[in-house]
C-alpha cells in the first residue's frame, strides 16, 4: 500500500508539473486573441476571428467552438460505436453454438455488460450531442452555444468516462484479474451489483457517473441556448423540429440523469462504505429497480427523440413536401417527453409489485404509443404523393420508419402485462429494443451523417457505397433482430452465455437455427459498417468538392434551412469568385434530378 | 444576457481550461470514491484551480485567488462537517487516518481544501506586493 501511494504521489507530481508547464505556454497563444484579459470586448474584425484558434492538436484540445466540439463528439461516438460493435460481434459469434463458441461465462457477461453501456452512454448520447452541437446554433441563428466553455468541459468528461467504463478490460491482465470488467449488465441490478467485490464495478460506476454529469451539463447548455440565443427571425412558432426534439430531450436529461447519478452514488456507497440503501434491511433491492428505471425509461426516449427529430427534418427534404402536421409532431414530442416519466414500472411487471400499480403503468405505457404513432403516420403522410428522391439519407429515413414500426409495435405488446409476463427477460425484449436502438436510432444517425456530410467535410460521399451501406444495414438489422423476436417466442432467455437446455423446455434445434440466423445478420451488418467507415474516411479525404451551398437542391422546394445558408455564406467567403451555380447541381444524389419533376 | 462575459458573441473560440476542469473532476471522483489519497488531493486541487482559472479567463471574476480560497473553504467545511456528523469523535485521531474508509477520504478532501486556501492566500499576497 505504502509503495503504491508513493508511486501515485509521484505520478500526481509529474502531472502537476506537466500541467503547469502547459499552462505557462498559454501566454504564447493568448496573443491569438485580443480578449485574453477576460471579456472586455473590443471591435473585432474577421481577420482576427480566423486566427482565433491555435494550430494542430492544441486547437482540438482547447476549442470551445460548437462546430469543433460537435466533430469531437462525432469522432468519439463513432469510435464508441466501433468498440460496441466489436463487442456485439463477439456476443454473436459466441452464440452460434449452444455450448458457446469462443468465450467463458465470465468473459461473456463482461462483454455483454460493456456492449450495452458503451452503445447507450458512449455512442447513443454523444452522437446525438454531435449533431446538436454542430447544428442547433446554426439552425436557430446563434453564434455559438450559450456557454461554450461548459460545452467543452462536458465533452472532455467523456473520454475519461469511457476509459473508466472499459477499465476492467485493460486492468485485468496487469492486475492478475484483481480488477475485472464489470459483469452487472447495463441495468446493474442489486443485490448482484453490490455483491460483486470486483473494483472494476466501481470504476465502471464512476465512468457512468461522469458521463451523466457530462450529459446534464450539455442539456443545461442546450436549454439555455434554445431559450436565449435564438436569432431575431427565429421564434417559437418557426423553431425547427430538430431543435424542438433536442429541447425536449434536454429537459428529460435534466430530470433523469441527476437521478441516475444519485442512485449510482448510493450504489457506490453500498459497495464501499457499508451503507444499506439497497440491502434487504435497508431500502430493499427493488428500490434500485425503481430508481434505475425512473431514469432508464426516459433514457430510451432521450435516445430516440432527437433521431425522430432528424428524420422529421430530413425526410421532408427528399419528399418535396413540408413535414405533414408539423404542430402535431411537436405536440407528440412534448407528450412523449411528459409521459415517459410515468411508465418506468413496465420494466418491472414480473417483480411481484402491487397489481393495481402495475395496471396503471400498463395504461400509461399503452398511451405513450399514441404520440409515437402520430409521428409515424405523419412521416408516412409526408411521403404520400411526394416527389421522392431516394438518396442515401432518404433511404435511411425510410428504413427508420419501417424499423421503428416493428420496434414500437413489439413495445406495445410488451406493455401489456399478460404478454410481458411470458416474454419478459427473453430475446423478444432484446429484439424489441434493438429494432429501436439499431434499426431506428442508428439509421437516423446515418441519415444525419450523410445528409450533412457536405457541411462537415466540404465534400460529397460516394453514393454507391452509401447505398450499399443502407441495404446491408437494413437487411442485417432485420435478419438479426427478427430472429431475436422469434427466439423470444421460443422461450430463449436473454443474457446467457450458453443455451444447452433440455428439449422439454424449448426446441433446441429451432433455437440454434435462429441464433445462427441472428449471427449471419450481424455479419451482414458488420460488412455494411465497414463500408460506411471506409466511405467516410475516403470521401473526407478525396471526395468531390462541394461548390454551392445547396447540394440537395432544396432551394427549389423552398426548404433550404439556415444551416445550408450558413454553409453557403462560408463557401462564398472562402471562394471569392464563387458564381451562381447551375439550377441543377451535378452533385445531387439519387440519379438524374430532372426525372424527379 | 448580451453583456455577460464568456458568451458566444465575444467569439473566443479557444480556452485551455475545459480539459483541466474535466480532468480535475475525473481525478477527484476517482480519488475520493476509490479512496486513493494522492489522487483525491491532486484532483481536487486541479479542479478548484481550473474553476478559478476558467472563471477568471471568461471574465466572471477579475482575479483567480478569491475563487480558489472559496472552493477550498467550501471543501474543508464539507469534509469537517461530514466528519463531525458521521465519524465518532473518539476515532478522529491522526493515527486513525488511513484506516477507516470514511475518515481517510474526508481527510483527503480537507487537505485539498486547506492547500487551496493556502495557494489562494499566497497568490493573492504575491500579486498585491508585486510592483
Ligand atoms: C412505443 C413505445 C414503447 C413501448 C410501449 C415500450 C415498452 C417496453 C416494455 C414494456 C419493455 C419491458 C420488457 C421487459 O423487460 O419485459 C421494454 C423494454 C425496453 N425498451 Fe421499450 N417500449 C417502447 C419504445 C422504446 C423505445 C423508443 C426504445 C429505445 C429508444 C425502447 C428501448 C427499450 C429497451 C432498451 C428495453 C430493455 C431494457 C432492458 O431490460 O434492458 N423502447 N419496452
Ligand atoms: Cu421502458
Q: How does the SSE layout of this entry go?
A:
The complex is a heterodimer of chains A (597) and B (131).
Chain A: H1 2-24, H2 26-30, H3 46-50, H4 56-62, H5 66-94, H6 105-139, H7 148-156, H8 158-165, H9 167-174, H10 192-195, H11 199-228, H12 241-272, H13 285-314, H14 326-339, H15 355-383, H16 392-415, H17 417-423, H18 427-457, H19 463-489, H20 508-542, H21 562-574
Chain B: H1 17-34, H2 37-57, H3 64-86, H4 101-129
Helix pairs in contact in B: 1-2, 2-3, 2-4, 3-4
Bound molecules: protoporphyrin IX containing FE and copper (II) ion.
Residues 187, 300, 303-304, 346-347, 365, 368-369, 372, 408, 411-412, 414-415, 420, 424, 429, 432-433, 436-437 of chain A line the site of protoporphyrin IX containing FE (HEM).
Question: Would you give an account of this structure?
Answer:
The complex is a heterodimer of chains A (597) and B (131). Chain A is mainly alpha-helical. Chain A is 68% helix and 0% strand. By secondary structure, chain B is an all-alpha fold. Chain B has one domain. Chain B is globular and about 50 Å long. The N and C termini of chain B lie far apart (36 Å). Mean pLDDT of chain B is 82; it is low at 1-11. The chains are: A mainly alpha (597), B mainly alpha (131). The interface between A and B is large, with 63 and 43 residues. The structure holds protoporphyrin IX containing FE and copper (II) ion. Copper (II) ion binds at residues 297, 300, 343, 346-347 of chain A.
Amino acid at each position: 500500500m505504502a509503495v503504491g501511494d508513493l508511486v501515485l504521489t509521484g505520478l500526481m507530481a509529474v502531472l502537476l508539473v506537466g500541467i503547469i508547464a502547459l499552462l505557462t505556454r498559454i501566454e504564447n497563444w493568448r496573443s491569438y486573441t485580443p480578449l485574453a484579459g477576460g471579456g472586455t470586448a473590443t471591435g473585432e474584425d474577421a481577420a482576427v476571428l480566423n486566427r482565433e484558434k491555435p494550430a494542430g492538436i492544441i486547437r482540438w484540445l482547447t476549442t470551445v467552438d460548437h462546430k469543433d466540439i460537435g466533430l469531437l463528439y462525432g469522432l468519439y461516438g463513432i469510435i464508441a460505436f466501433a468498440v460496441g460493435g466489436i463487442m456485439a460481434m463477439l456476443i454473436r459469434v459466441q452464440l452460434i453454438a449452444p455450448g458457446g463458441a469462443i468465450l467463458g461465462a465470465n468473459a461473456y457477461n463482461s462483454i455483454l455488460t460493456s456492449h450495452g453501456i458503451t452503445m447507450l452512454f458512449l455512442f447513443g448520447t454523444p452522437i446525438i450531442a454531435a449533431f446538436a452541437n454542430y447544428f442547433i446554433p446554426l439552425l436557430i441563428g446563434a453564434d455559438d452555444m450559450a456557454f461554450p466553455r461548459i460545452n467543452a468541459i462536458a465533452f472532455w468528461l467523456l473520454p475519461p468516462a469511457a476509459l473508466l467504463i472499459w477499465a476492467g478490460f485493460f486492468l485485468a491482465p496487469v492486475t492478475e484479474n484483481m480488477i475485472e470488467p464489470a459483469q452487472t449488465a447495463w441495468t446493474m441490478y442489486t443485490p448482484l451489483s453490490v455483491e460483486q467485490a470486483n473494483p472494476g464495478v466501481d470504476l465502471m460506476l464512476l465512468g457512468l457517473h461522469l458521463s451523466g454529469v457530462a450529459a446534464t451539463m450539455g442539456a443545461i447548455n442546450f436549454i439555455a441556448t434554445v431559450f436565449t440565443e435564438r436569432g431575431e427571425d427565429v421564434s417559437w412558432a418557426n423553431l425547427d423540429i430538430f431543435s424542438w426534439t433536442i429541447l425536449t430531450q434536454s429537459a428529460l436529461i435534466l430530470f433523469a440523469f441527476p437521478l441516475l447519478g444519485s442512485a449510482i452514488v448510493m450504489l457506490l456507497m453500498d459497495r464501499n462504505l457499508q451503507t444499506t440503501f439497497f440491502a434487504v434491511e435497508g431500502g430493499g433491492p427493488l428500490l434500485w429497480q425503481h430508481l434505475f428505471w425512473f431514469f432508464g425509461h426516459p433514457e430510451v426516449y432521450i435516445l430516440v427523440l432527437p433521431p425522430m427529430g432528424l428524420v422529421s427534418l430530413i425526410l421532408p427534404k427528399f419528399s418535396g413536401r413540408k413535414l405533414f402536421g408539423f404542430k402535431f409532431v411537436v405536440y407528440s414530442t412534448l407528450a412523449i417527453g411528459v409521459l415517459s416519466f410515468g411508465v418506468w414500472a413496465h420494466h418491472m411487471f414480473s417483480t411481484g409489485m402491487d397489481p393495481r400499480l402495475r395496471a396503471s403503468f400498463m395504461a400509461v405505457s399503452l398511451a405513450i404509443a399514441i404520440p409515437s404513432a402520430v409521428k409515424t403516420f405523419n412521416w408516412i403522410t409526408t411521403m404520400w404523393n411526394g416527389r421522392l428522391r431516394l438518396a442515401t439519407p432518404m433511404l435511411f429515413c425510410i428504413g427508420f420508419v419501417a424499423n421503428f414500426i416493428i420496434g414500437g409495435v413489439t413495445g406495445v405488446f410488451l406493455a401489456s402485462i399478460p404478454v410481458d409476463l411470458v416474454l419478459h427477460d427473453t430475446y423478444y425484449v432484446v429484439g424489441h429494443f434493438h429494432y429501436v436502438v439499431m434499426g431506428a436510432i442508428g439509421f437516423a444517425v446515418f441519415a444525419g451523417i450523410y445528409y450533412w456530410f457536405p457541411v462537415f467535410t466540404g465534400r460529397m460521399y460516394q453514393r454507391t457505397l452509401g447505398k450499399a451501406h443502407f441495404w446491408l444495414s437494413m437487411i442485417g438489422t432485420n435478419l438479426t433482430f427478427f430472429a431475436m423476436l422469434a427466439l423470444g417466442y421460443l422461450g430463449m432467455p436473454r443474457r446467457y452465455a450458453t443455451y444447452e437446455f433440455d428439449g422439454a423446455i424449448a426446441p433446441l434445434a429451432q433455437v440454434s437455427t435462429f441464433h445462427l440466423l441472428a449471427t449471419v445478420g450481424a455479419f451482414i451488418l458488420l460488412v455494411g459498417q465497414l463500408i460506411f467507415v471506409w466511405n467516410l474516411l475516403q470521401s473526407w479525404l478525396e471526395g468531390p468538392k462541394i461548390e454551392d451551398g445547396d447540394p440537395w437542391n432544396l432551394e427549389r422546394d423552398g426548404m433550404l434551412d439556415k444551416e445550408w445558408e450558413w454553409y453557403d455564406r462560408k463557401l462564398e467567403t472562402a471562394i471569392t469568385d464563387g458564381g451562381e451555380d447551375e439550377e441543377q447541381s451535378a452533385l445531387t444524389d439519387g440519379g438524374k434530378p430532372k426525372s424527379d419533376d | 444576457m448580451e453583456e455577460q462575459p464568456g458568451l458566444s458573441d465575444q467569439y473566443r473560440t479557444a480556452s485551455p481550461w475545459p480539459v483541466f476542469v474535466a480532468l480535475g473532476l475525473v481525478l477527484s471522483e476517482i480519488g475520493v470514491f476509490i479512496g486513493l489519497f494522492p489522487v483525491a488531493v491532486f484532483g481536487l486541487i486541479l479542479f478548484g484551480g481550473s474553476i478559478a482559472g476558467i472563471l477568471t479567463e471568461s471574465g466572471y471574476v477579475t482575479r483567480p485567488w478569491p475563487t480558489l480560497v472559496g472552493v477550498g473553504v467550501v471543501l474543508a467545511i464539507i469534509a469537517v462537517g461530514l466528519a463531525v456528523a458521521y465519524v465518532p469523535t473518539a476515532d478522529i485521531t491522526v493515527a486513525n487516518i488511513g484506516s477507516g474508509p470514511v475518515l481517510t477520504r474526508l481527510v483527503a478532501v480537507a487537505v485539498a481544501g486547506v492547500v487551496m486556501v493556502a495557494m489562494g492566500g499566497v497568490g493573492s499576497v504575491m500579486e498585491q506586493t508585486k510592483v
